[in-house]
Amino acid sequence: MRALVLGARGAVGAVAADALRAAGHHVTGAGRTPGPGVDLRVDLRAPDGLARVREAAAEHDVVLHASAVEDPALARAVGRTPLVDASATGRYLDGLAAAVAPGGTLVLGAGLVPGLSTVLVASLDARPGDEIDVAVLLGTGETHGDAAVAWTAGLAGAALHDPPEGGTVINLRSARVLPTRSGTRRLLRADFPDHVLVGRARGVTVRSHLAAGGAATTAALALVGRFPALRALVARMPHVGDDRWEVGAVNRRTGERVAAHGRGQSAATGLLAARAVEAAAAARGRGVVTSADLLTLDDVARVPGVRLG
């Protein structure tokens, strides 16, 4: 398999590229600046950026988009070459889905959240009308990439994209207590896009919630949500604690819960994205799909560092 990785120098793209190479695949790393792992210079913000992607995609079996540039025109640029996108921005993913080329394959959400979370939600025994809560717990001991930090800071004061309950819902301003491996935790409503990716199609209401580190750090994040002018503090939060992560999904009606955990959010996201790339290469012509359409719980359990339960 020949894979083109956009954003190959980033925290997620570098891990995914290394994993694909280790599995015996040919990888072309693409990035805006030269450096280790970059074989092709591509600046997606430049006037010729998408044209360069179009040329390169034609010579590859699958494209992984792991850069911070979110332009829905990318879906048209890759043509019929399957595209796996690791973004967590619902509005952008909706735009990609609308732009996919006829006969193409587009995998929306490949990584920890969405991606693994999408598989967890889809594995629940749910019926139309059910309400599902997704709990995302991220350790603060890990140094995250610039794109991940900017994405989290951007939640402050922003409204969720197309919330399932309708109306306007502001990120980080409402909370819910949910079960975790270490007991119940208070988590903040956050715009992870599983309500867009899997909730709509299945007729279920999916709400995602975020906790960062311990209770004190999550309370600080809630303060940023109330006062968005403080969003710069997100990048300045000290890297104390550990790098443990946990993602769980629970059905409010039945109480059924499925979850996964591990260490190192960026590494897990990259390894899960690599697994989605392999699945997408074998799914040409599928149209718009999610990780839940290509991977099962058993599949994600075989990803190094991902543990169910």
Oligomer: single chain
Which overall shape is indicated by the principal axes computed on the Cα atoms?
globular
Physical arrangement of strands within the biggest beta sheet: 3-2-1-4-5-6-13
Quickly give the structural class: alpha/beta
CATH topology of the largest domain: Rossmann fold
Given as residue ranges, the uncertain stretches (5+ residues, pLDDT < 50) are none
Overall mean pLDDT stands at 94
Portion in beta strands: 15-25%
Q: Strand-and-helix sequence, N→C? A: EHEEHEHEHEHEHEEHEHHEEHEHHE
CATH architecture of the largest domain: 3-Layer(aba) Sandwich
**Share of residues in helices:** 25-40%
What Rg, in angstroms, do the CA atoms define?
18 Å
Task: State the total count of DSSP E strands.
Answer: 14
According to CATH, the homologous superfamily of the largest domain is NAD(P)-binding Rossmann-like Domain
Q: Quickly name the level 1 CATH class of the largest domain.
A: Alpha Beta
Task: Please work out how many helical segments DSSP would assign.
Answer: 12
* Whole-number total of structural domains: 2
Give the biggest beta sheet: 7 strands, parallel
Distance between the termini: 32 Å
What is this structure, in a nutshell?
With 309 residues, the protein is α/β, with parallel strands linked by helices.
